[in-house]
Amino acid sequence: MEKIYSDNLERGEIVKISSETIQFLLGFSKQLHVVEYKKLQFENSLN
User: Fold this and answer.
1) d(CA 45, CA 19)
2) pTM of structure
3) Which of 5, 25, 43, 44 could form a disulfide with 33 if both were Cys (CB 3.0 to 4.6 A apart)?
4) Which CA distances in Å does 24 have to 18, 30, 33?
5) Chain segment 27-42, per-residue pLDDT in tens
6) How many Å apart are CA 25 and CA 46, to the nearest integer?
7) Distance in angstroms (rounded) separating the CA atoms of residues 29 and 25
8) Contact 6, 21 (CB under 8 A)
9) Contact at 8 Å (CB) between 44 and 35?
10) Between the CA of residue 7 and those of 23, 31, 34, 39, 44, what are the distances in Å?
């Protein structure tokens, strides 16, 4: 596992994220609600 991670880390590149993108993702994660019932999974948007 460690070798796989370090190999992929060397090929990666740094990505800069704007504060608007972070705020969008935080807002989306707050409004997304996932419910599991038996073997089914329901995703609800609490908007």
Assistant:
1) 23
2) 0.44
3) 44
4) 10, 10, 16
5) 888 787 888 999 999 9
6) 14
7) 6
8) no
9) yes
10) 31, 36, 34, 36, 37
